[in-house]
Amino acid sequence: MIPRRTLALLLALLCATPALGQQRGGTAVIAVAGDPGHLNPAISTAGPLHAVAGSLFNGLVALDEVGGPVPDLAESWQVAPDGLTATFRLRDGVRWHDGRPFTSEDVKVSFEQLLLRFHARARAGLAPAVAAIETPDSRTVVFRLHRPHPALLRQLDVTEAPILPAHLFAGTDPNTNPANQRPIGTGPFRFDSWRRDDQVVLTRNPDYFRAELPRLDRVVFRIIPDANTQVNALLAGEVDMLARVSPPDVARLRGRGVTFAEMRSAPGGSNCIMTLGFNLDRPATGTLALREAFALGLDRAQMLERVVFGQGRVAEAPIASGIGWAHAPGGLSGWRQDVAEANRRLDAAGLVRGADGVRVSLDIVHFPAFARWSEILRQQLAPLGVALRPRMMDPAALSQAVFTRRDFDLTLISYCNGTDPEIGVRRMVHSAAVGNVPFSNAAGYRNAEVDALFDRAASLQDDAARGEAYRAAQAVLARDLPYWWLVETDFTAAWRDDFADFAPWSGQVAERAWRRR
Amino acid sequence: MSRLLAALALVTLYLACLVFAPVGALPDLPRQPPLLPPSFAHPFGTDDLGRDQLAAALQGGRTSLLVAGLATGLALALGVMVGLAAGLARGVLDEVLMRGAEIVASLPTLLVAVLVAALFGGSMVALALVIGLTRWPLVARLVRIETMAVLGRTHLRAAFALGATPLHVARRHLLPHLAAPLGATAGIVFGGAILTEAALAFVGLGDPAVTSWGQMIASGFTLLGLGWWLWATPAAMIVLASSLVAAATLPGVSVARSLPVGQSP
Amino acid sequence: MAGFLLRRLAFGVLAVLVAASLAFVLAWHAPGGPAVGLLGEQAAAGQVEEVSARLGLDRPAIEVWAGWMGRLLRGDLGTSWREQAPVASLILERLPLTLTLTAAAALVAAIAGTLVGVAASASAARWPVAALAAFHAVPSYIVAQGLVLVFALGLGVLPVQGVADARDPAMGGVALGVERLRYLALPVAALALHQLCFTALLVRASVQEQMHLPHVTAAMARGRSRGGARWHHALPNATLPVATLTAARIGGLVGGALVIETAFALPGLGRLAVSAAVARDHPVVICCVVAACALVWLANLLADAIAPLLDPRLREG
Lengths: 517, 265, 317
Hints:
Chain B: Belongs to the binding-protein-dependent transport system permease family. Chain A is α+β, with helices and mostly antiparallel strands.
């Protein structure tokens, strides 16, 4: 087992850091695996784009380490008792990087012309709830809603809803706007230069609205596709921070003057659960007894240990433990591992073994990066008489095979719940999310009771009451098993010890970072 | 003779992979802790999921050598056919075939293989096809030149005059001349195919559904901190196989004859 | 000669168009569309269809292909879907690096390979052949990792990755040149090794063959030392094959550069091709094939042009 520094411990350490040690100046080089392509975070949810763009822009709110909203471009907000209006008071004196003042018009244009039309999660999660966005004055934005939408505040941070300048985007085609190449934001860093597939250079925004921030002069995002090269570059001091480190590479870096941050959230994905999806339209995987046999037969503790080297937790419920108020502790504990019982249920269901000991042969569709997951699944399923045929494909091909053509028995997907079940869980279980929509309801699961519980949870105000509904829904999911939830996987970031206070769980990775001398 | 020795060793390695490698999925060793370094019981160690690395290396060898063999066979078959046709027919057909060969030859094999894998997903069969379909011009040129040279010789004109069929001529007079340079070309294609497979796996575009040497090295590289044997043992196998191929086919063959000497008309 | 080169150039254009059509067919039939590349992995209902309509992917393939060929003939490479920039500029940005990498590796391999080959031909021992054959068989990214471990992490004299220091890129003149050399040394070495060993093996065999030919025996009879005959009489006749060989393997180097670009995080053509293919950015995929193909074609043209300089027998034509 790898000893772990939990987020809580890390935070305790950070808070204990004396403020007087923090210095200004210096450059931080951050390695990311892919080129952003363009830098308009309001029209795409691609990870590499948001990894860079988060430092250039702001949301109305920011999210703290446990996913709670804190002020960002909005200094305060108020949700009406009926839940049908949310009023945001904007911060005064904020300027865009080109010197223009930031106003409520920017917020309105960002939502109406960009986010609600092009940002996949905003369009799926927010657009159906938002009736109108009003700007009574330049510092006030009012969201009028069709129905109460309690997840609203968790969908307004820089990753879910970055605010872009109206004076550059109003009335233009955002897919070809030149500002996508030379972005103008309000964020802690300004865009300086970009050599594609090489590096993006950002410089300190001296007019940032948090006067004491940022502390660094420059941030360079180096695009290094190969994980080994990233680790070598960190060891050689050419790079100061790795945004994502694989579990085995943690072993390589331990004791080499490197600080690790293990977290459940990262820009573009938080509270992710490696999940096995059953195609409910196929005869075999549509059989409940087979799905129950999976739940009884698989050894998820071994997956946690051997595939992710202990960096995560066995999934305890359909909703991730990181969303504490919605999570159902012990929600899957009814399925204790019991291979003999699994075999009995398969026998009872009439899935008999052939001469070769195989009851049924299933194909499993997943990204090549998950090959070790499907290999361990194959090993663990062999004693049940279930044979697996892996079909590995990239995101474009997988989204077509699974969500358009529905040509699969099993699929292995890392579903990221986000900071609210409305963001990442509704899309995988609600019957309205079945269809030609990438990374939505892969199982093709339709259950009126679950639909009703999710709709109810979405309309309530209070987290306790919402949690009640989500827990009831999880009980149904644990019985129906449209998915089998394997392991909650954590992200690890690493930086050289001469830097401190990176925030890799948020979009603003380097806002507070500083360099020790 | 050491070339013969190398060829023999290669065939032995090939047979070992075919006979001793487990068919289907690798047997796992559930009671073993994973990541055991090489020992007497496991000469190549065990991998991160507790599987015997020697069994994997043999199975990977079967895949890698099969892909290389298929690709080489395809390139040879196409190349010999096109080269013979061009060399025998001359004239317009020759011109058309050779220009076609030239166009194909200007496609970088690895780039095409990578694009096909990126677009369609990694597949060993597709890889063998891409290599075979892009490498045959090498063979075709050689066969064409040799055919023309042999046809020009007096004793062949005599053979034709005495009523020999083209097939007979090809077998009795052409093949003996072609054997050595063809062998060298086949060796180049074969060795290149093994390395292409490995390169593809490194870029993350191999066929992750099967065990191959390239796949093993690539996955060993992602676990670099956990055990050197994970990548070093399949790498050693690649080096062994490829250098045996090179040793068996390359030396003693005239450069000028075995290689695509220019595209000069 | 000029007419010959012109004819070759015209045929080259045809070859490039054929290659582009091939790339088009592949891209068109690939599973999955550009939606995931453009929108990120997730999407909302209706977005996939909107993307297809916006990019004209709902039209018949033959129509789209014809449009492509027409634009290519006019020299218009189109606009990248994912990067929202003209494909021509994307490729021109990457080309110098890939060109430098391949050309440098080809030169190093040809020159060093020839020297090693001649040196190896002097010995009757088998070990140089075995060593060359073994090194020739090591996958280039293992070579790269080894070089990085020794020269970058071990000795600390050369950088691990990239084309310049990310912290301090402002530099000019001689310093810039030296810096570029430092950054390209390991990638070029890793890319060249395979080809170098191959060249050396063939030069060695070729020189040994030449040593038994009458003109070399005659030179030795006139009093040339064995070594002198090797370098002055046997080697020159072995250079033409090396030149044609190098040209013929440019394609291999262009492909191999892709691996090296990934291993050393260099922004080259190969990485552009891979990331475009993964994102189903068809305009870029097609033009990357066009660029690689044109590169190979020009290398062969160059080889044809310099062949007469190396071989007197080809000069009269």
